[in-house]
Amino acid sequence: MSTMTAPLVDPLAMRQTMGRFATGVAVITTEDASGPHGMTVNSLTSVSLDPPLLLVCFNHGARTAEAVVSSGRFVVNILSRRQQGIALRFAARGEDHFAGLDLEYAGHRVPVVPQALAHLECDVERVVEAGDHTIVFGAVIGASTRDGDPLGFFGGKFSDITQHGSEPEHWFF
Predict the structure, then answer these.
(1) Mean pLDDT of 137-159
(2) Are 76 and 120 in contact (CB under 8 A)?
(3) pLDDT tier at 15 (50, 70, 90 boundaries)?
(4) Cβ-contact 52, 16 below 8 angstroms
(5) Is the CB of residue 21 less than 8 Å from the CB of residue 27?
(6) What radius of gyration, in Å, describes the C-alpha atoms of the chain?
(7) Does the pLDDT value for residue 106 go beyond 60?
(8) Domain 23-156 is in which class?
(9) Which of 34, 51, 110, 135 is 20 to 30 Å from the Cα of 10, by its Cα?
(10) Membrane-spanning regions, if any (predicted)?
């Protein structure tokens, strides 16, 4: 094992390089004594199937992260390709993200994004501070899905994700 350490990568280079990794888009929701909170994330991953665990990364100081930790519960709302507007709504800082939305609640009293592709209800299992992020591990206590195509994120922009061998959905109104 080498005792030499590699030079740190420039944050912009790190952002550009990691932007080449396609992800889905989710909104994390919770509710604490001050009311409902939510924010858009794409730093989310499954950690374990047995027991069912996932993790989500929040910027340090994010109000939603603080509310998740204080309430001890949250919902991961995986967005469909038709929900880019919801992703943008919950990405705006300092806004009332729930204004005008008909709130629906998960089994453990946490607001959910209506018509999301999937919901994962979680209890906070562990919180870890790393770099400029707060990493929250969630014990998944409930999960539900619906049919549809996911909203993707690639190279700093929303994108479509389609399975190989299938045609993308066409939406006509």
Answers:
(1) 92
(2) yes
(3) confident
(4) no
(5) no
(6) 17
(7) yes
(8) mainly beta
(9) 135
(10) none
Query: Can you tell me the distance from the alpha carbon of 40 to that of 58, in angstroms, rounded to the nearest whole number?
Result: 10
* Per-residue model confidence as pLDDT tens digits over 22-64: 788 999 999 999 999 999 998 999 999 999 999 999 998 899 9
CB 78 within 8 A of CB 113: no
Amino acid at 153: F
Contact between residue 120 and residue 142 where contact means Cβ atoms under 8 Å apart? yes
**Cβ contact 94:38 at 8 Å:** no
DSSP labels, 34-98: TEEEEEEE--EEEEEETTEEEEEEEETT-HHHHHHHHHTEEEEEEPBGGGHHHHHHHHSTTS-TT
pTM of the model: 0.86
Nearest to 36 by CA among 117, 88, 112, 135: 112
Cis-peptide, bond into residue 51, ω within 30° of zero: yes
From residue 163, give the alpha-carbon distance in Å to each of 147, 156, 167: 13, 21, 8
Residue 150 DSSP one-character state: B
